[in-house]
Amino acid sequence: MERSGMRAADADREATAERLRVALEEGRLSLHEYDERLGRTYGAKTYAELDEVLVDLPGTTPVERSAVVPVPPAPTPTAAAPPNPAAASAPASTPPQPAAAPVRPSAGPRYGPQLLGLWMSWLRVAAVLVPIWLLSSISARDLGNFWPAWVLGPWGALLLMQSVGLIGGVHGSGPGRDARRYRGRDRRRRGRA
Questions:
Q1: Which pick of 21, 28, 117, 144 has the fewest CB atoms within 10 Å?
Q2: Which domain holds residue 9?
Q3: How many domains does the structure of the chain reveal?
Q4: 118 phi/psi in degrees, rounded to 5
């Protein structure tokens, strides 16, 4: 039996999902295409079905062949060197260039796909319930009771708390924050003793 007919494992589906996520971040896939292919990925049973999902995407490029060149580190300021009289009298061949400001990566891509995955099912349910409510309300000629709020409201509140926790986990927590909190608690305890 050749590879395409063999059954895929969960690890294979996860690797394919990761390649799709990278393609989405690179702009190779739209959000709709990503969602559709991700569903097919987790429903795939064979390697052939997984290969179908990735057929029009380029493979990953090894680091040694990558066209991306890392930015060299900025020179560190050193102690002032004594002036060189010979260098001062020679004309400068090129004017000094201003130092480029360091590029700070945005925090968005770190948690953007997780937020999207978190809210996607809520949005799908909202896209079904709200039109049903609208059509039934129009036919009854009464727009009074927005019953989808009973489902979407509590669920949305839960997702909002999870989203805040996810973003807070990226920005506001970590070993440094926890260490400061415990250090302050230890000082208070020592002060009482």
A1: 144
A2: 3-60
A3: 2
A4: -65, -40
Quickly list DSSP for 33-100. HHHHHHHHHHH--BHHHHHHHHTTSPPPPPGGG-S--PPPPPPPP-PPPPP-HHHHHSPPSSPPPPPP
Does residue 77 sit within a domain? Answer: no
Distance, CA of 27 to CA of 102 (rounded, Å)? 24
Question: Mind listing the pLDDT tens digit of every residue in the chain (193 residues)?
Answer: 688 889 999 999 999 999 999 999 999 999 999 999 999 999 999 999 999 999 999 876 554 554 545 556 767 666 555 555 555 555 555 555 555 555 544 444 566 677 777 788 888 888 888 888 888 888 888 877 888 888 888 888 888 887 777 676 544 444 444 445 555 555 666 666 5
Tokens 């580190």: give the residue.
73
Q: Which of 122, 131, 130 is nearest to 154 (CA)?
A: 122
Please choose, from the candidates 10, 12, 34, the residue with its C-alpha nearest in 3D space to the C-alpha of residue 23.
34
DSSP state of 29: S
Same domain? For 56 and 118 the reply is no
